[in-house]
Amino acid sequence: MSDSTAGRTRLRSFRAFTFVIYFGLVLIALLVTGALSYQQNQRAMLSFIQDTNRQYVEQTGRLLDSILFEVSYSSAALATNAEVAAFLRPMADDERQSSVEADVESLLRFVVSTIRTATTAYVYSAASDRISTNNGTTDAPIYHDNEWLSGISDMSSSSPRFEFRRVVTFQENLLSITRRIESNQGLIGAVAINIPVESIRRTLGSFRVDGTEEFLIVSRDGSVLFSFSDEHLAQQRDQVGPVADAPFSQESESQMFGLTYVVSRGETAFEENLQTLRTYLIVLVVAVSLIGSTLALVLSSIAHRPIREIVATIEDPDHVSRATWSEDIQFIENTIVKSIASNRDLEGRLADRIESLRETTYIALQLQLNPHFLHNTLESLYWSSLETNAADGPVPSSLLSLSRMLRLVLDAEEMAVPLQSEIDLTKHYTDILTARFPGLVSVAWDVPEELTERLVPKLLLQPLVENAFYHGIKPLRRPGRIRIACRREGDEMVIGVDDDGVGIDREVLESIQAEMESEIHITSKHIGVLNVAQRLKILFGERGRISITSAAGNGTSVVVHVPEQPAAVTIG
Questions:
Q1: How many angstroms separate the CA atoms of 210 and 310, rounded?
Q2: CA distance 128 to 119
Q3: Domain final residue, candidates 146, 165, 199
Q4: CB 496 within 8 A of CB 456
Q5: pTM across the whole model
Q6: Residue 466 falls inside a structural domain
Q7: Where are the alpha helices (DSSP H) in 170-244?
Q8: Which of 174, 199, 224 is the last residue of a domain?
Q9: Is the distance from CB of 74 to CB of 53 less than 8 angstroms?
Q10: How confident is the model at residue 102 (pLDDT cuts 50, 70, 90)?
Q11: What pLDDT score does 494 carry?
Q12: Average pLDDT over residues 106-119
């Protein structure tokens, strides 16, 4: 072999070796970068899905809590209703029984019509073994839906029971809220309100973005009360396949009931995104391999070209690469700008929802008081009408006071009203008290004239005076006194409501104070003082506060601190 041929052979071998080195470096760098990018994007997508699911289950849990609270509250109201109580008692008079059953049916129809998700409501009388529903009344043993009665004997009377039921007669899946009713003699009946599973599905359906996602309501014992899939209903949670997949499942505990909300979604989107990413990386590897091989070939060729060609190439050796980098930077910048704009939009919508929730919570707390004090007032009117027959007796006077109270409560749309309006409202209420319990309570006022136009939260004084009477004066069995005094301290108005009643035990007082310092929530215990405390917290934050001092047998003193101006919020 001649030297020239051998030299050309060595030159080709060297060019091939150079090409392999360049191409190998490019390919290894590409594969390493692609693998790292794939793993990072996989983790980022999974983290995003988990965060999204966590927010979704918490938001949806709050929605379900509000729905179930509405039903639970209605069942509690039915359990204490006078018409229901009459139905539960044994009756020998058929005509009287027929009238009572008609009243209960009408009441149940009203309850069902006011609850957006419920379709049926039942009241069971153990004495007569009959079930009254919004569709009629019949004997319990022959009613088409009586299986729920078998478990009421094991229930606790203090809390509702949530259970999934399938009514075979109508092929209907229900979420039932059952409440036991008992007296000193034991079980006397029960109340049940039924929510069709399809109704909850329609409510949550607007939140679904993927038909494969799953949402569960799980009871304390792990039984599935609600699912988008019929086959998962009544199963144990660990038997539901999609929800058992931890990477795509998130859960939230109910804030009001012993329930767990579980969501599993995003697996399909995750797999689709991963497939898209894999396809993109394969295309990128092929494309860059072609470019890399071309580049390696060019570089290996350049290494063997004359200096003139090397210099010419050095003047603009990488124009394609520079263009590629420019496009990548532009792509990244556009992506960041879009992400920032999207985050700001989400923050704005979240702020709007938080403000809406704040106003809604305040309204709910304020409106909660209306039925509370009206119940006691109407009860007073009822007993007064039984105790007197005089035409000018306490009933007409009480009715007039109640009418004026209703006008003051319902006419004003603002959350804040002048102090004089609150005084007028409370005086109408105390007039009703003195008519119902003559000689049992006296009320003294100490309000400077210059404070009567100061704005205070609506329904501030009446709940405190009501608490003072019913929990302080009435249990005395002797005449008592309530004193309301107002004074100015700096930019605050301080309102005191004192009574010389039975006082409050230390343990009970500590419990009330702990409730007042807790997060804002709606409760059925100590409605008056807790409601006022939480509304003050919503309007003024830590500046609006209530303090209570009391001891058993020594009366109670409630002091309210109202800042200069309440929040200007209008209802309606």
A1: 58
A2: 25
A3: 199
A4: no
A5: 0.45
A6: yes
A7: 197-205, 241-244
A8: 199
A9: no
A10: very high
A11: 95
A12: 91
